[in-house]
Design goal:
With 118 residues, this protein is of the alpha+beta class. Helices cover 67% and strands 14% of the residues. It has one domain.
Length: 118
């Protein structure tokens, strides 16, 4: 869940949050990668919530230690999902600004791109 390595941002050091085994929020570099991460994290959150529900309903009995670990995992997966959502918004904003610049300064690139996909 939480790695001891840290990621440097502009003015702070934050802990690395693991999305899945050896896949961290800091590894994400595109909107599409963020979308993939959100899908993985949402599935993980749902799975943990389902297991906790089964535990509460008495259908499973893994004990208090397991339940505490599951709650910790759930918390970190939710934190990861929030971090990925924020990172995705930044990437989407950067892409929009780049597209607006291209539209204004290089409209022929837009026409060429449209022609190549149609």
């Amino acid at each position: 869940m939480l790695d001891t390595t840290t990621s440097e941002t502009s003015d702070t050091t934050i802990p690395e949050i693991e999305i899945a085994h050896e896949w961290y929020v800091s590894d994400l570099e595109t909107v599409e990668a963020c979308d993939d991460a959100l899908a993985v994290l949402t599935e993980a959150v749902c799975n943990i919530e389902r297991q906790l529900h089964l535990e509460r309903m008495g259908e499973q009995n893994r004990g208090a230690r397991w339940q505490a670990g599951a709650m910790t995992s759930l918390t970190w997966k939710r934190h990861a999902r929030e971090a990925v959502t924020r990172k995705r918004a930044v990437f989407a904003s950067e892409e929009r600004r780049a597209l607006e610049w291209i539209k204004e300064h290089k409209p022929e690139w837009i026409k060429e791109a449209i022609a190549s996909v149609c």
